[in-house]
């Protein structure tokens, strides 16, 4: 019991240290992201720009990853390449060096983790019918670190047009 408590304290200490020393990213633009979705693309073009115009400012590994993109389809009804997000993620080789966009169809998905060796993953849902990632566990059942709807440990991860729900 004492070892478990010491282990939990060690994990919390490492987590807090990481939060304190991680670099802070600041924007050079004072323009807020618009609330009106119709204005979002023009805001993005003004403030972010296409990859080609930003290559010199990005990590070279990211630039290379974005040059060779793979898209896989996840559909809960079985009409995609995979029925679950987890299966799609497992199909990506460890230490992957190319962007993999996992296009997720509507529905509820119970998924858990993207490990630290599966890089350059984008989970992309349909903006008109966003998929829902659900987890019905609690910290009491699974512990604090394993109770999130989705745990991401990988580099260069992004999620777009998804609903994350804890029931």
Features of this protein?
167 residues, alpha/beta, 9 strands, 30% helix, hydrolase, EC 3.1.1.11
Question: What does this protein structure show overall?
Answer:
By secondary structure, the protein is an alpha/beta fold. Helices cover 30% and strands 19% of the residues. It catalyses: [(1->4)-alpha-D-galacturonosyl methyl ester](n) + n H2O = [(1->4)-alpha-D-galacturonosyl](n) + n methanol + n H(+). GO terms for molecular function: pectinesterase activity.
Main sheet properties: 4 strands, parallel
Terminal-residue CA separation: 30 Å
Mean pLDDT: 77
Structural class: alpha/beta
Low-confidence stretches: 13-27
- Determine the number of helices (DSSP H or I, runs of at least 4 residues): 6
Radius of gyration: 18 Å
The main sheet orders its strands as 1-2-5-8
């Amino acid at each position: 019991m004492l070892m478990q408590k010491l282990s939990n304290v060690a994990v919390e200490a490492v987590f807090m240290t990481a939060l304190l020393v991680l670099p802070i990213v600041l924007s050079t633009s004072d323009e807020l992201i618009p609330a009106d979705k119709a204005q979002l693309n023009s805001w993005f073009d003004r403030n972010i720009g296409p990859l080609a115009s930003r290559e010199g400012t990005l990590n070279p590994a990211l630039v290379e990853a974005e040059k060779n993109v793979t898209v896989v389809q996840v559909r809960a009804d079985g009409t995609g390449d995979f029925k679950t997000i987890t299966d799609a993620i497992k199909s990506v080789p460890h230490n992957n060096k190319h962007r993999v966009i996992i296009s997720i169809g509507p529905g509820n998905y119970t998924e858990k983790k993207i490990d630290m060796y599966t890089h350059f993953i984008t989970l992309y849902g349909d903006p008109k019918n966003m998929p829902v990632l659900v987890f019905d566990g609690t910290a009491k059942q699974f512990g604090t670190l394993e109770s999130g709807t989705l745990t991401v440990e990988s580099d260069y991860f992004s999620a777009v047009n998804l609903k994350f729900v804890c029931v």
